[in-house]
Design brief:
The structure is a homodimer.
Chain A: H1 11-18, H2 39-63, E1 67-74, H3 80-88, E2 96-100, H4 106-109, H5 115-119, E3 127-131, H6 140-143, H7 149-168, E4 171-179, H8 182-194, H9 205-211, H10 213-227, E5 234-238, H11 242-260
Parallel strand pairs in A: 1-3, 1-4, 2-3, 4-5
GO molecular function, one term (chains A, B): polyphosphate kinase activity
Protein name (chains A, B): PPK2 family polyphosphate:nucleotide phosphotransferase
Domain Polyphosphate kinase-2-related (chains A, B): 38-259
Chain lengths: 277, 277
Amino acid sequence: MPDHAHEPLDDREVLAACRVHSDTALADHDPRATFGWDKDAAKDRFRIVADEVSELQKRLFAADERALLMVLQGIDAGGKGGTIRSVMNRLNPAGVSVHGFGVPSDEERAHDFLWRIHDHAPERGKIAVFDRSHYEDVLVVRVKDLVPEPVWRKRYEHIRNFEELLDDEGTTVVKFFLDVSKEKQRERLQDRIDDPDERWKFRKGDLDDRVMWDDYQAAFQEALRETSTDAAPWYVVPGDRKWVRNLVVALALRHHLEQIGPEYPPAEEDIDGLVVE
Amino acid sequence: MPDHAHEPLDDREVLAACRVHSDTALADHDPRATFGWDKDAAKDRFRIVADEVSELQKRLFAADERALLMVLQGIDAGGKGGTIRSVMNRLNPAGVSVHGFGVPSDEERAHDFLWRIHDHAPERGKIAVFDRSHYEDVLVVRVKDLVPEPVWRKRYEHIRNFEELLDDEGTTVVKFFLDVSKEKQRERLQDRIDDPDERWKFRKGDLDDRVMWDDYQAAFQEALRETSTDAAPWYVVPGDRKWVRNLVVALALRHHLEQIGPEYPPAEEDIDGLVVE
């Protein structure tokens, strides 16, 4: 924590505060954190940062050298869909693919847990967004005891190795855990039930997961600690306030795209001064 | 043509005017047409119609019954990329996939011409956008004489059958030809050359295609006539003015989504009045 905690944090400090390390405790992260930001100013800044992300995406696409994979995890009603809508729809849709990973199909289950994931990795120049991901295989699988512990426990290393492969071969991996309080989840689930246009999204099974809240938090915390690497860092994003969440995600995307530093490729030779007839 | 050609056309008349029939002549379509619209008013209307398309997309996604495939064809600098950026990025990116079809890979060429296309057909609930498509196999392939005429000529029927299959099995197909004048293409290609950030997009080969302008127009006209069906209609979109183009595409998408008429699915039983603890 910086000395002047009452002053707004700068962008670097915010990302540092959200970044997961091997001793990160979710209990130390406040889902209602604002980093000293004013709401209206943060919304204005979000639009500016999102436009910068959009410009960087154009260059990423043009350069056609590296890709970016954004992984989104969180509980039901944690805001994964809203984050995708808010942040990604300011980008050129031709350069973005979004894939939601649900319960595996029979064919997917007949392979190792990374098989279906690898298939959706982005091609050079593109940004892929995973709404849920291979992390379900150390989260729900663990909490619901779907595979034995020795199997899911070894997956941390498989995940680290896989993500290092992606990074080394040209895909930058950035991962976000949307950190929502139990009270905020209650409120959002209730809103779903009460809104006729949203009610179809609600499954009574969502409440079973809510009963296992502490088990999920423990599983998230261990998974984040075990797999937040320089090649593929995790960020804990305060999720109760959408305007904070959106700005943090945009800042992190901008940071990692700047690290890639994509540039427009050179034109073909002898084009300078060419006149089209 | 309606009697009062000096009055703005209504939406139905615009779509009817753009719709391709078996006797459509591209020469009768004006790339600079405005349908009597005022520019500022049309831009405002575009935002309204795009929001309606966005609401229909939410229902399409929720209903999870039908999909929509949007095919975009046109010459280089015809505005395919700009149309995708303008129209599609008002939609939820989680429900949209965009795929550009370039020169086929060795593996793709080892199969029939619809093999790679079928692979990218949208799943239920989704909208897929094809930036170029299977139509290249009756366009560039014909103009550049890449396969014998008896082969590409039979493809019209294969395409009609394939698109009817998609429609019957749940995917509505809507196709847009972006109709740009030769002078406007000259202007846009020149802008690309003169803009350092755009120059990388320019290929000298683009000028070779321009020399074969009339051949391409003839190939487009025949392909449109042969494959504009009730199951998968073509629209000729006036492409010289972006604000006309965007509004026409949005109107057609809205029309075809309304034809699908997606509704939010019913909630699970016993949810009414449920209180989340």
